[in-house]
Design goal:
about 200 residues, mainly alpha, single chain, globular
Amino acid sequence: MSDGTAVAGPDGALRCPWALSTPDYVTYHDEEWGRPVHGDDALFERLSLEAFQSGLSWITILRRREGFRAAFAGFEIAKVATFTDADKDRLLADAGIIRNGAKIEATMANARALAEWTPGDLDDLIWSHAPDPAARPAPKTLADVPAVTPESTALSKALKKRGLRFVGPTTAYALMQACGLVDDHLQACVARSAP
């Protein structure tokens, strides 16, 4: 059992302990998690997947990500904004995704809301909530990694004010971690120093 500090993987490199439970996690941890993500559609995808993850393990979403991309038109905001009740029925029958009606409706509603925004607004809004990296010491153990921060609470409020759903402070913080607004790789983790 890990004490929450970085753990050596099969290759001997130290990683965040959560990354070593499956090969899928190792790849995601090493190549994606915590790397900067920009672009409205890319951020809409991450926001949508974080909402679907709520109450579930991230691996459940990660293993269905290609199914989600196929089902939701590559998470192109303009395309998802045109989804109809027939699309909702199609999605509810799609075994390649998480078939949660409320989360499907929220994703469709969020796309309709975002389609009204000026291009670049979602990227600007999300990244405006990135904290100063110099003010955040590198976490040494998982106990040093928060679930919610003042910045994620503010981001959640800003997104909700603009009409988005399923964007609570915990979901907003998970988005911030996944999209590189914060670097929560542990201090000894090999991915912390990765470009």
